[in-house]
């Protein structure tokens, strides 16, 4: 029998809990696999096409890795791409290579290959969270609930439609803390080494936060749970010396080799301290600091301080950043208040009242009950607090979602355990969950009402209407990862009638069924009904993304001109490379790697020497791909055929003066491709 306090007013209530972790039921495994296949490993792998910017740039980096046979230095469009850790690109290149071995070499096949690593990441995360929940709460039901809560997370779903490594951070942080918790159950050296290996893989996924987050969470947990001296003694039991060796054996080789392969070039300008501030000098052609400075100083320290160069990103408002936790885990976030707030509130109130120190409070309660919630609260809070003091993108919230999913799963499982109990505390718990579902139902009804109003007031646009012509532009918001979605207005929503209707039905009927089932004292069936509504919303989101994709990708333009493109033609992007980066992937440029400066095998850039290609372009071996209006005008009247991509909305969106006729070849999604020669 264990002691668990679940409300402010209730006395300590005896809660029966198994002494050992229950095994995973086969039905739970099948549930996870079926949900994963349905939403992460089927139609979502094939559509929509890769998006411009990070999605296609990262896929292109992996493709060029295979072309160059260089697995140390990352390249994009022939230029050193030094910003990122390599694990996402290694895994993407591996799946692309497998596809190539089976003869699937088309851009469409490689698109599927590029999405498989993140798909497998989500499967591994779901299975790991299920195991973690069973060990934390000694409940197979808690393990089962992690599947719908995590796999239906809108945040995890939408940010695995883009090739970014943040889902990997979720996986390896979860793996590290799972290994740590297993050492709490029974100290074993292999779990200490598992923790170190997970941290190393985390660092290879997204840099130093992969080490900072797990270690900070563990240290805070141990010191709070045990106090200073016992806590330090506990940390020494985790084999820190040999675990550090395991970490270095996995993480260090690439970092050392990357630094050696990308040394400082020329004589870069030294730093200056002027008027109480350090000035970061910009590189010049042939004079650039090497990988160690750029990766660790510029991409870690200066980015955190919002001083990174170039400053090509924006930051979410703090209120939105924290609020995204609720959005990314809806509808399950309705249970946050009780799952998170109840233990946290009791703990804080006891400290404020000065009845006990945090360690004394923890020691008075059974650590099998309190320990999991303390660990999960620290885990959820630390990434949010860390990024609250720095730059914030919408997806930086993701590392906090797994612990919140575990807290919700444990809370829901606790109710099921006492479904038939008449204990007053159990009845209060049921009432609180009933109230949470009622809140979800009210919000769903409001959304459904708004959606119905929009559906009644909007009209289906004419066939073949270009969505871009219906949008209201907000270019100031485009530095945010989801800024383009703010362009939607009532005219544009006429193209989104199906996903809007499906989302409204899912967010209303799912909670309605859950509410009615709870009225009949069927909480487990109610939770499954809530999950069905959440997955219906994911389907609506995917359909909506497909509808919006022509605005976010240039793949349709690449496919239109592909039959006309010859290897010796010049393809150029007017603006930043990222704005039309799907051209490189879907036209497979470069098709081979050439070392001749100025080779037309690469995508050329007009008035866009910035963003991700900016720093690497100063290395002496960077291909001469950057055009000026004068250099392009000179080539425009020559015999070589030129394809020029440009946006019709985002600056620069006006063609420079050209010395010859301009032929518009294709126009779609607010973008066009023009040429100096008509179609052959």
Question: What is the share of helical residues?
Answer: 55-70%
Unreliable stretches (pLDDT < 50, length at least 5) are 1-15, 363-369
Radius of gyration (CA) equals 27 Å
Distance from N terminus to C terminus (CA atoms, Å) equals 81 Å
Structural class: alpha/beta
- Give the overall shape, derived from the CA principal axes: globular
Strand content of the residues, in percent? Answer: 5-15%
Q: Average pLDDT value?
A: 87
Number of separate helices: 25
The largest sheet, given as strand count, sense and whether it forms a barrel, is:
6 strands, mixed
- How are the strands of the largest sheet arranged? 9-8-7-10-12-11
The tally of strands reads 12
What does this protein look like?
This protein is α/β, with parallel strands linked by helices. 56% of the residues lie in helices and 6% in strands. The chain contains 25 helices and twelve strands. The chain has helices spanning 26-40, 43-46, 54-68, 87-101, 107-137, 140-151, 154-158, 166-185, 189-206, 209-226, 228-236, 240-261, 291-304, 318-328, 336-339, 341-352, 358-364, 367-388, 401-417, 424-457, 497-519, 523-552, 555-561, 582-586, 629-636, and strands at 2-4, 13-15, 75-76, 79-80, 272-274, 277-279, 570-574, 604-606, 626-627, 642-647, 663-668, 671-675. The chain is globular.
């Amino acid at each position: 029998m264990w002691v668990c306090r679940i409300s402010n007013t209730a006395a300590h209530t005896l809660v029966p809990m198994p002494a050992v972790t229950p095994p995973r039921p086969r039905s739970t495994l099948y549930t996870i696999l079926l949900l994963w296949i349905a939403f992460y490993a089927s139609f979502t792998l094939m559509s929509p096409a890769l998006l411009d910017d990070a999605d296609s740039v990262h896929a292109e980096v992996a493709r060029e890795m295979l072309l160059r046979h260089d697995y140390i230095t990352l390249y994009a469009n022939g230029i050193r791409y030094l910003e990122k850790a390599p694990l996402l690109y290694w895994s993407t290149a591996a799946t692309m290579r497998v596809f190539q071995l089976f003869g699937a070499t088309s851009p469409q096949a490689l698109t599927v290959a590029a999405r498989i690593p993140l798909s497998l990441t989500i499967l591994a995360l779901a299975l790991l969270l299920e195991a973690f929940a069973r060990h934390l709460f000694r409940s197979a039901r808690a393990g089962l609930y992690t599947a719908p809560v995590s796999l239906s997370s809108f945040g995890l779903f939408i940010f695995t439609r883009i090739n970014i490594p943040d889902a990997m951070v979720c996986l390896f942080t979860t793996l590290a803390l799972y290994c740590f918790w297993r050492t709490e159950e029974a100290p074993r050296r292999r779990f200490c080494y598992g923790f170190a290996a997970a941290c190393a893989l985390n660092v290879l996924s997204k840099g130093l936060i992969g080490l900072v987050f797990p270690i900070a969470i563990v240290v805070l947990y141990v010191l709070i749970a045990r106090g200073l001296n016992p806590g330090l003694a506990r940390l020494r039991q985790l084999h820190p010396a040999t675990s550090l060796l395991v970490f270095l054996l996995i993480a260090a080789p690439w970092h050392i080799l990357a630094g050696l392969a990308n040394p400082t070039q020329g004589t870069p300008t030294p730093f200056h301290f002027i008027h109480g501030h350090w000035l970061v000098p910009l590189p010049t052609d042939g004079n650039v600091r090497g990988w160690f400075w750029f990766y660790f100083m510029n991409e870690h320290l200066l980015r955190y301080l919002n001083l990174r160069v170039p400053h090509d990103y924006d930051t979410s408002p703090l209120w939105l950043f924290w609020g995204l936790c609720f959005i990314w885990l809806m509808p399950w976030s309705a249970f946050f208040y009780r799952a998170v707030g109840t233990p946290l509130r009791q703990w804080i109130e006891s400290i404020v009242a000065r009845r006990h120190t945090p360690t004394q409070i923890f020691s008075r309660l059974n650590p099998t009950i309190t320990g999991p919630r303390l660990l999960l609260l620290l885990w959820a809070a630390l990434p949010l607090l860390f990024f609250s003091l720095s730059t914030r993108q919408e997806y930086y919230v993701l590392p906090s979602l797994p612990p919140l999913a575990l807290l919700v799963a444990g809370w829901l499982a606790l109710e099921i355990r006492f479904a038939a109990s008449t204990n007053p505390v159990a009845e209060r718990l049921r009432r609180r969950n009933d109230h949470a579902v009622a809140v979800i139902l009210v919000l769903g009804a409001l959304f459904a009402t708004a959606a119905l109003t929009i559906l009644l007031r909007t009209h289906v646009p004419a066939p073949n209407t270009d969505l871009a012509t219906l949008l209201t532009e907000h270019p100031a918001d485009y530095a945010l990862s989801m800024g383009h979605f703010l362009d939607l207005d009532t005219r544009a929503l006429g193209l989104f009638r199906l996903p809007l209707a499906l989302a409204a039905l899912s967010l209303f009927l799912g909670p309605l069924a859950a509410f009615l089932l709870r009225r009949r004292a069927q909480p487990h069936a109610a939770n499954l009904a809530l999950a069905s509504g959440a997955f219906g919303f994911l389907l609506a989101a995917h359909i909506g993304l497909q509808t919006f994709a022509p605005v976010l990708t240039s793949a349709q333009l690449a496919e239109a001109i592909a039959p006309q493109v010859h290897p010796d033609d010049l393809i150029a992007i007017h603006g930043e490379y990222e704005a039309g980066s799907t051209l490189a992937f879907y036209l497979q440029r470069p098709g081979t790697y050439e070392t001749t400066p100025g080779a037309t095998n690469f995508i050329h850039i007009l008035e866009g020497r910035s963003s991700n290609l900016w720093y690497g372009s100063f290395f002496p071996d960077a291909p001469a791909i950057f055009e000026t209006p004068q250099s392009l005008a000179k080539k425009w009247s020559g015999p070589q055929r030129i394809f020029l991509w440009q946006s019709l909305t985002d600056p620069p969106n006006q063609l420079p003066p050209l010395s010859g006729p301009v032929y518009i070849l294709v126009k779609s999604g607010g973008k066009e491709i023009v040429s100096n020669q008509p179609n052959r």
